[in-house]
Design brief:
- By secondary structure, the protein is an alpha/beta fold.
- The chain has one domain (4-200): 2-enoyl-CoA Hydratase, Chain A, domain 1, CATH 3.90.226.10.
- Helices cover 51% and strands 17% of the residues.
- The protein is built from eleven helices and nine strands.
- The chain has helices at 28-43, 66-71, 75-94, 110-116, 144-151, 153-161, 169-175, 185-200, 204-214, 221-235, 239-250; strands spanning 4-10, 13-19, 49-54, 59-61, 98-103, 106-108, 120-124, 129-130, 180-182.
Amino acid sequence: MNPYVKLEIKDGIGTIEFFHPQSNSLPREILQQLAETITEAGNNDGIQVVILKSAGDRTFCAGASFDELMAIENEAQGKQFFSGFANVINAARKCPKFIIGRVQGKAVGGGVGMASATDYCFATKFASVKLSELAIGIGPFVVGPPIERKIGSSAFSQLTINATEWHSAEWAREKGLFANVYDSTEEMDTAIQTLAEKLAASNPDSMQGLKQVIWDGTDHWDSLLLERAAMSGTRVLSEFTKKTLEKLKKS
């Protein structure tokens, strides 16, 4: 199957689904489409609440595309690539509709950032999380603000410093990343549908006002996340990172 981002609307619920054959990784094109589609859903009067999900069973999102990371040749290209993550996060926080996250499987790097940028996130017990950026020589600079905002500085430090260890879905729930964790996708989807239907029948103006309150204090992220993108864009050019990516690509 080819990569895609699609939006489906039913009964006031807008469902955004993304897919990439490499474990739902995020190349620049998918990042751009995600940001645009989230903004589109936020501006659609026929949508009262948004569900953000990926296709497949056991992997929510593998984070940045290794192929595109390896193709970056200069700082401008690096900043441009990582700005894609900044744009998705900023689109999510500025979307006037609540975004419900659906994390059915493992989330790495940018995938954890996307989950943290939702307003209410469901997961299955298979949804382990990992911030692997330091292990390849960079750091979770762009996705750091929403993750730290969601789980706190101590838990964020644990994730980012121990960059090769998976943390369980239950750990993520305890820290506040996930609101609920279920034994199966069927149970999770039932719970998501129930909440989405309740929100679709709620007062749009009140939900929009509440979202602004929830995300209060993040207005500076438009510039902050682009600054962080430049930090990542510089470090991805290091010899350490280039060699590490090559090793991972061959393994």
